[in-house]
Specification:
mainly beta; five-stranded antiparallel β-sheet; globular; disordered N terminus; disordered C terminus
Amino acid sequence: MPDNDQPAEPSRAVRLIFEYDGDDVRLIHQQPVDVLVPGFDAAPDIRAGRFAEVRDADDRALARVAVRHDTSSREVFPDRPGEPITRVDVEHPTGAFTVVVPASEAARRIALLDVDVAAPPPPSGERGTPPPPPEPRENVLGIFPLEAGEAGQ
């Protein structure tokens, strides 16, 4: 029976900082951190978006974290107070973003993915037969090695 009096092992996580220039994305910094990572999928479901996927040595997905940074547009602040902040599309996006991912002992690489989910086909007309799930299309923006080390060191 486990000993519940012992403190739980700290969660391992890594803060990743990426730079992008158009379609070119580079991982420029990794920092082990001792934090809980909310909102990651241990068994990735099918949904559209940009994700940092933690992979093992055999390239199997261990976890997928949504990247909450829009590289296709920028916020534009008004000249006068009280006017709304707007977003405008950019022709050649540049910048940086950060994402924190869980990093178990098995984690070896990070894949940065753009996932597009095709609309499901129309119903076949057969009663009781659910339509097949949508087919995801993954565009791999880059695969980066994950540095060894424990969070908090």
